[in-house]
Amino acid sequence: MVVIDATGRPPMASGAVPRPVRSRNPLDHDVPTGREEAWRFTPLRRLRGLLTGPDADGKVSVTVTAPAGIAVEQLDAADPRIGRSYTPADRVAAFALARAGGATAITVPAEAAPTEPVLVHLHGESPRSAAGAAGVAYGHLLVEVGPFASATVVLDHTGSATYAGNVEVHVGHGASLTFVSLQDWDAGAVHVGAHAYSIGRDAKLRSFTVTLGGDLVRLSPTVDYRGPGGDAELNGVFFTDAGQHQEHRLLVTHTPRSCRSRVTYKGALRGAGAHSVWIGDVVIDADAIDTDTYELNRNLVLTDGARADSVPNLEILTGEVVGAGHASATGRFDDEALFYLQSRGIPPAEARRLVVHGFFAEVIDRIEVVELRDRIMASVSARLGETPAEDEPATPAEAGAGRAGA
Amino acid sequence: MSTLEIRNLHVSVETEEGPREILRGVDLTVRKGETHAIMGPNGSGKSTLSYSIAGHPKYTVTDGTITLDGEDVLAMGVDARARAGIFLAMQYPVEIPGVSVSNFLRSSATAVRGEAPKLRTWVKEVKASMEALEMDPAFAERGVNEGFSGGEKKRHEILQMALLKPKIAVLDETDSGLDVDALRIVSGGIEAVRAKGETGILLITHYTRILRYIKPEFVHVMTAGRIVDEGGPELAAVLEDSGYDRYVKGGGAAAPTGAPAGAVS
Ligand SMILES: Nc1ncnc2c1ncn2[C@@H]1O[C@H](COP(=O)(O)OP(=O)(O)O)[C@@H](O)[C@H]1O
Ligand SMILES: [Mg+2]
Asked: What ipTM did this prediction achieve?
């Protein structure tokens, strides 16, 4: 058994990863007080009442552009396909399921292999209410990939809303899915959602969760394997700007044998009150022999006043794994790297931009949809501020070995 | 005529016990087309001098001047110094994960030249320079210094010098850690820049072996933050035979074998 733990903590035994209550009934879930492990990082007052399931007074429109052969349906609330592979694990998710009034379902037939991605545009159309907050909306999205099919699905969240929306994904046996969820909300949006991935026997998921906009975004991606040979790659990128709260809570549960999981999340934070939270829970059940898992979170804190919380948890209930490890590190700009770039004539702001792009490139370069990659990098650049004029005077700290006191 | 002039340079670093003076009055003049070697034992302050010329923020100049063609280099930021024509090949080049060599080279050439090089000629230029240094084209797609061997890092430094065409190049122990083959290739790269006569080279080295490939006109010996001896190539031959012992043992009082300090410039 290989256990690698860059945090220096021993891998934890039974009980390390909390087991939430699972129920469709919102009232089965206690109202969080903020002291619970699952809620202690989240500023509850900024959830705009989502914990009590307020009536929808806003709208998130869903527009699906799909290649031929892919079924796009509107399911009503009673449809048995909803909730087949997912049961809510917290109150907001339960309200979202209860109040979504059905679901948008995308089905990739067995053995289909469309070359174009399915684009799902979720646009918050909620103007600010009298209270000043974007209106409340609920949603449920169902993605089913048939056996031996292969597809790419892209979710693109824009506009503004107070949105509780779940995504339920099942990748059928032997199938392969690339799934991108881009949170490119306007500044005022609140988004709380469960992204539940169910991985069939010998199926492969490659997911990308990219969180850029919004006032508060709290996503809970979970992976459950339905048979041996499943492979889940969870990639994430976030850029947390001043005042933003971005929280990603991952739970990968290895129950069958011989499954693989790889989690790679990279975040950059900038500005006063920027707060990111990354929770990486991995459970390897007693029968999950031959499991191979590794999770990593790296954060780059660009300025003072930003805070990154990063908590990996590995619970191993069998001794016979191929590999199980995690690493978490939060750092600042590497001054030596910035010096190296500047010593080649590159102005300080451009040097910082290159370093941040390089930091994200490891994850973003894995996205095969070129336009998406460019859009994400462009958004990162815009947030860093464009390259200043050539003759911008260096600040004293950047002037380097100048005269003492000069 | 490009001239780098260093006068009475005193440099300190911040340590836990407060500032510590490392350079204690260095005088040096390097002109375009000249090659100077600075030799000295470990810890004598050679890298400190290099970093101070390039403007590393850890090193504080407490006295003295550095000028390039009369312009005050110490008043310039790190990037402005590079754009003014100063280049430092680092003893320990830094990794910049995820930034490809090709992107990096183009960004720095754009900054130093003041405009983006024309794509077609640029690609040819890079290719030719890489071939001269026997570098695999695949190298351009790797992250800057990421997982590079010692030899690859040094070739990459010399590649940058060739592309950026500096007025003054400071090469800090570019020869250290190279095997015979790599030393030959890297020396060839330096020699090619030198042969053009457009660059003044300050070759910093601990050993004499690189001087078999590159013949300096001036040799300076540095110990304990000062230049304690200066001369022509013959001084390198003396050092090859007798090492630094006599300078170190006698401290600053060692009898110079060459011209008195400062006389070369
Ligand atoms: N950043 C630093 N902090 C503290 N001491 C330093 C620093 N840089 C260099 N020194 C010290 O200054 C002296 C000269 O170092 P350096 O310039 O690297 O010498 P050389 O390159 O000739 O081996 C050494 O004693 C070294 O320990
Ligand atoms: Mg040195």
From this structure: 0.94
